[in-house]
Design a protein that fits this description.
The protein is mainly alpha-helical. The protein has one domain. The chain contains five helices and no strands. Helix 2 runs antiparallel to helix 3. It is globular.
């Protein structure tokens, strides 16, 4: 990517904008290919590559995921591939959990937030690895 990345989010330099667009395109292409929103990949990229504060990265990542999910959901609706009862139950529970989780973000120490994000990514990564390995064999 061209130019220097700024250390602060919201600074529009050519290098930073190129990096943001490149990461977004890459995650979007991969997510579209495998059918996932891929916030697990985008979140570390926001924090480590773009050096966005983890609290800001969490909120930004959620909104990007919502947009990506909405577009993907429309495609599944048009194909008749949505279980609306499951959507209502899990969606309502997830919205409540997400609301309270977002309220906790500002109260948790930054190091603990980063540790929690890393542990979630590790556990999800292990589950995906095991599932992929068992599907192959």
């Amino acid at each position: 990517f061209g130019g220097e990345l700024s250390g602060s989010e919201g600074t529009f330099t050519p290098g930073r904008m190129s990096a943001e667009a490149g990461i977004g395109l890459g995650v979007g292409l991969l997510g579209g290919a495998v059918g996932l929103i891929l916030g697990r990949i985008r979140l570390p990229a926001l924090i480590r590559i773009l050096r966005v504060d983890p609290r800001i990265a969490a909120g930004t990542n959620l909104f990007i995921g919502m947009l990506i999910g909405a577009f993907g959901w429309v495609g599944h609706v048009l194909q008749g591939e949505v279980d609306y009862a499951l959507l209502a139950l899990m969606g309502a529970a997830a919205m409540i959990g997400s609301y309270y989780g977002a309220k906790l973000t500002g109260r948790v120490q930054l190091t603990n937030l980063i540790l929690a994000m890393g542990l979630v990514l590790l556990v999800v990564g292990l589950f995906l690895t095991v599932r992929g390995a068992t599907d192959v064999f």
